[in-house]
């Protein structure tokens, strides 16, 4: 997990209990007609995407790689145990590489060449396609885009793939990155908070747009997917799909 609170789960947990969000602060250049807006971003260097994957080169996918690195040993173990065709990838995103597409449009309108942009970078299906190719997997791979509930639905869908016998392991999670289009869109709806937001708070005045990434590996040994044999699930855990008061 990586977000405005920190770059790994320990850092996130520490800052959460302290009420500190290092990556949530005023940022310039995102909100049209305003010098700054309070936005949540990820600080620190992200993994580079090599030239072999240039069609998938986006900050969104870099966040995925950063999150994947935290569970890489578990993923490698699952692939070795179950095989590449039995590992699914189900992710959620609302942005994918939209910011890269925005930069391409701006360069083109100003008569400049956009040498690094390729259309797949901004496709909503790209995160799961990229991660599946990165890991050389042959199992199911798809991306969900249902706004705030995208990653929650990805986790649910990964579990359902396991229950249906279509996969033995599902890599689930999601990533979103800052992009001018949704930021200005929410601002036009008067939804952005002028200060750090107060999720579920009585004095909440809006939302704070954020960057974050998360990856997890769900397999039959987890509490949510305790399998008997191959397909029958012994224990069911309830799930909820959405919360709008962020």
From TrEMBL:
Keyword Transferase: yes
Residue span, Beta-ketoacyl synthase-like N-terminal domain: 59-207
One GO cellular component term: cytosol
Keyword check for Protease: no
Pathway: Lipid metabolism; fatty acid biosynthesis
Source taxon at top rank: Bacteria
PROSITE patterns hit by this protein: KS3_1
Gene Ontology MF: a single term: 3-oxoacyl-[acyl-carrier-protein] synthase activity
Gene3D superfamilies, per the entry: 3.40.47.10
Annotated keywords: Transferase
Residues making up the signal peptide according to the UniProt record: none
GO biological process: fatty acid biosynthetic process
Protein name: 3-oxoacyl-(Acyl carrier protein) synthase I
């Amino acid at each position: 997990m990586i977000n405005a609170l920190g770059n790994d789960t320990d850092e996130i947990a520490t800052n959460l209990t302290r009420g500190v969000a290092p990556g949530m602060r005023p940022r310039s250049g995102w909100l049209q007609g305003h010098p700054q807006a309070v936005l949540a971003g990820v600080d620190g260097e992200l993994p580079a995407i090599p030239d072999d994957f240039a069609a998938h080169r986006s900050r969104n996918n870099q966040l995925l790689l950063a999150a994947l690195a935290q569970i890489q040993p578990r993923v490698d173990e699952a692939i070795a145990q179950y095989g590449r065709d039995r590992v699914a990838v189900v992710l959620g995103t609302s942005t994918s590489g939209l910011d890269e597409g925005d930069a391409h449009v701006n360069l083109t309108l100003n008569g400049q060449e956009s040498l690094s942009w390729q259309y797949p970078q901004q496709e909503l299906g790209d995160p799961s396609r990229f991660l599946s190719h990165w890991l050389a997997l042959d199992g199911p791979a798809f991306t969900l885009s249902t706004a705030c509930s995208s990653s929650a639905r990805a986790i649910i869908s990964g579990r359902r793939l396991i229950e249906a016998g279509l996969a033995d392991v599902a890599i689930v999670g999601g990533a979103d990155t800052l992009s001018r289009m949704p930021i200005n869109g929410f601002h036009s709806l008067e939804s952005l908070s002028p200060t750090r937001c107060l999720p579920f708070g009585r004095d909440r005045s809006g939302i704070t747009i954020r960057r974050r990434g998360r990856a997890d590996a769900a397999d039959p040994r987890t509490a949510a997917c305790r399998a008997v044999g191959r397909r029958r699930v012994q224990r069911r855990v309830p799930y909820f799909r959405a919360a709008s008061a962020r």
